[in-house]
TrEMBL record:
Residues 138-179 form the Zinc finger CGNR domain. SUPFAM superfamilies: Jann2411-like (SSF160904). It comes from Nakamurella panacisegetis. This is Conserved protein containing a Zn-ribbon-like motif, possibly RNA-binding. PANTHER family: BLL6575 PROTEIN (PTHR35525:SF3). InterPro entries: ABATE (IPR010852), ABATE_dom_sf (IPR023286), Znf_CGNR (IPR021005).
Length: 188
């Protein structure tokens, strides 16, 4: 995975990671879920599934769920009320059965395979848990001016600013250091 693509999956929640597969004006990276194999690949990646089976129409449905999650998350970050239509979409997807774990005869967890409908249900249920739970008010947008990725601030003081300290946080520190150095050089 390229660094730009990997950056999309550091939010701390599967629903936000799935939302980051979209191509939007807020980030420059391309659409990641554009056909059935890409939906299978990204649901497998985000949910840790061994395999995902898709049907015709699943990609359009995934886009519909993803758009609702994006709007709900942005509403939460700006302390705006939820759009009832987005809530209805989320609840409808959550109503389907999620992937069901299976135990093997030797006591291990069997590799989990699921349909796209089940995977999208798991994503919707994660979004409901996030938006309605104690971390719902800790959804943040990265403070970097050229990044709009969302993440869950699970830090104890609730002051995390960057989607990733290794990426955006480090770049901000480098810029601050260079600016400070330039001021010192001008003062000499």
């Amino acid at each position: 995975m390229t660094p730009a693509v990997a950056k999309r999956f550091r939010s701390g929640r599967a629903c936000l990671d799935f939302a980051h597969t979209a191509e939007t004006p807020d980030w420059r990276e391309p659409e990641l879920v554009y056909d059935r194999p890409s939906l299978e690949r990204w649901l497998s990646h985000i949910l840790g599934l061994a395999a995902v089976r898709t049907e015709p129409g699943d990609v359009a449905e995934a886009h519909r769920l993803r758009a609702a999650i994006l709007r709900l998350a942005r509403a939460r970050t700006s302390e705006q009320p939820f759009d009832p239509q987005d809530v209805d979409v989320l609840n409808a997807f959550a109503a389907a059965a999620p992937p069901i774990p299976r135990l093997t005869a030797n006591g291990a967890l069997a590799p989990l395979a699921a349909t796209a409908v089940a995977g999208l249900s798991a994503i919707a249920r994660d979004a409901i848990d996030l938006f309605a739970g104690p971390l719902g008010h800790r959804i943040r947008v990265c403070a970097s001016p050229d990044c709009a990725y969302m993440f869950v601030d699970a830090s104890r003081p609730g002051t995390r600013r960057w989607c990733s300290m290794q990426r955006c946080g480090n770049l901000a520190k480098v810029h601050t250091h260079r600016d400070n150095q330039a001021v010192k050089d001008l003062a000499r």
